[in-house]
Each structure stands twice: as C-alpha cells, then as structure tokens.
UniProtKB/TrEMBL annotation:
InterPro entries: PspA-assoc_dom (IPR054437). This is PspA-associated domain-containing protein. Pfam families: PspAA (PF22743). Residues 1-92 form the PspA-associated domain.
C-alpha cells in the first residue's frame, strides 16, 4: 500500500501493518472527540512516526496513487477532522 503524508511524500507499507496503525488512529479519534489538543498532537506524531518506522520511502520524484493519505505533523485538529471517515484516518481497519 502507498501512504502519503501531506507535505512530506510517500512510503510503501505492507497492509498487514495496518492494525498497528489502527490502535493509534483510534486514540487520535478519541482525543479529537474529547477536544484533547495536547493528546491529539502527541498521538498524531506517534502515528506518523510509526508509518515512518514501518514504511519504506519512495523516491522524491515518484508519484504513485495513494491508498492512504495522512495529515502533516503540524495539521490542526480541524484540518484532521476534514480528513476523517467513519473509521478514522485509516478506513477499513
């Protein structure tokens, strides 16, 4: 699966790793619903760090269709809300 982090680039990620990301996605969703700004910021960074840890970056000149688009590390709570589906940032997991 190709994952795009807005403002950073793309990584390839084995879909079998999505359950690991989903745990952080669920935390992020709960923090957003509770208006926990500091928790939201920390969990968003943890989610992006995990994607970097598990994924392999694509070359900068590569542009592949993304199966998953994640916000940039400095995204606001409101910007992330706009990206959410009923499943959170990571649909279908």
């Amino acid at each position: 699966m190709i994952v795009r982090i807005m403002g950073e680039g793309q990584l390839t990620l084995d879909e079998s790793r999505l359950p690991e990301l989903n745990k952080l996605d669920e935390e992020l969703l709960a923090e957003m619903e509770n208006g926990d700004g500091p928790g939201f910021r920390a969990t968003l960074q943890a989610l992006l760090d995990k994607v970097h840890e598990l994924g392999e970056p694509l070359p900068d000149d590569s542009l592949e269709p993304s199966g998953l688009i994640l916000p940039s590390p400095d995204a606001t709570l409101e910007e992330v809300r706009d990206l959410l589906t009923d499943d959170g940032l990571i649909p279908g997991t």
